[in-house]
C-alpha cells in the first residue's frame, strides 16, 4: 500500500479517540514499540470503538470478523508515552464495512490502518441490520479533501 493520503492523517476527521498506554514489554530491541504489538494495539482500538459506537455486528448471534487489514508504519513510537488511537468508519456496505485507524503519539503520526470487517451470523456473511446501519452514520469519518 502506498503512503496514505495526507487527508487521512488529520485526527479531527475521526469520530472516536481513545488513549492506550504503552508498556515496557511492548518494545523491540531498538526500544521502539514492536510492529506486532502495534497490530494488537490497533485491535484494542477497534474493540473500544465498537463498544463506544455499539456498531459492528456484535449483538446477539451476530459478530464481526476481520477479512482484510493493511497497516502503514509511518513513524516510531516509544515507551512510556500513551498512543492516541483515532478510529472512524470509512465505508458501510451490505455485509461489510471499513474502518480507518490513525495512531499518534503526541503530535507525531505513528501508524495508519485500513481494516475491512464482515458481519457474520451462523458462520456466514449477514446483512448489516438497518438499525445498525443507522447507528453507524454518527461514526463515519468527517469529510476531508483528498489529495490527487
Distinctive features:
6-stranded antiparallel sheet; Thiol Ester Dehydrase, Chain A; alpha+beta; 148 residues; globular
Number of domains: 1
Strand content: 35-45%
CATH architecture descriptor text:
Roll
Give me the strand/helix succession.
Answer: EHEEEEEH
Q: How many individual β-strands?
A: 6
The global form is globular
Mean pLDDT: 91
Q: Structural class, please?
A: alpha+beta
End-to-end C-alpha gap: 16 Å
Radius of gyration computed on alpha carbons: 16 Å
Main sheet makeup: 6 strands, antiparallel
The CATH class name reads Alpha Beta
**Number of contiguous helices:** 2
* Helix fraction bin: 10-25%
Point out poorly predicted stretches.
Answer: none
| Name of the CATH superfamily | Hotdog Thioesterase
Stated plainly, the CATH topology is called Thiol Ester Dehydrase, Chain A
Task: Provide structural commentary.
The chain has 148 residues and is an alpha+beta fold. The chain has a single domain (11-139), classed as Hotdog Thioesterase (Thiol Ester Dehydrase, Chain A, Roll). 18% of the residues lie in helices and 36% in strands. The chain has helices at 35-53, 130-136, and strands spanning 16-20, 62-73, 83-92, 96-105, 108-121, 124-125. The longest helix has 19 residues, at 35-53. The model has no long low-confidence stretch (mean pLDDT 91).
Amino acid at each position: 500500500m502506498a503512503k496514505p493520503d495526507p487527508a487521512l492523517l488529520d485526527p479531527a476527521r475521526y469520530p472516536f479517540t481513545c488513549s492506550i498506554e504503552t508498556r515496557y514489554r511492548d518494545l523491540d530491541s531498538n526500544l521502539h514499540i514492536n510492529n506486532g504489538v502495534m497490530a494488537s494495539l490497533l485491535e484494542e482500538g477497534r474493540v473500544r470503538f465498537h463498544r463506544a459506537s455499539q456498531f459492528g455486528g456484535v449483538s446477539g448471534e451476530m459478530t464481526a470478523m476481520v477479512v482484510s487489514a493493511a497497516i502503514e508504519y509511518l513513524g516510531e513510537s516509544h515507551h512510556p508515552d500513551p498512543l492516541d488511537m483515532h478510529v472512524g468508519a470509512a465505508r458501510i456496505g451490505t455485509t461489510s464495512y471499513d474502518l480507518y485507524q490513525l495512531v499518534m503519539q503526541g503530535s507525531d503520526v505513528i501508524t495508519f490502518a485500513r481494516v475491512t470487517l464482515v458481519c457474520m451470523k451462523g458462520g456466514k456473511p449477514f446483512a448489516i441490520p438497518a438499525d445498525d446501519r443507522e447507528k453507524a452514520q454518527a461514526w463515519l469519518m468527517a469529510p476531508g479533501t483528498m489529495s490527487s
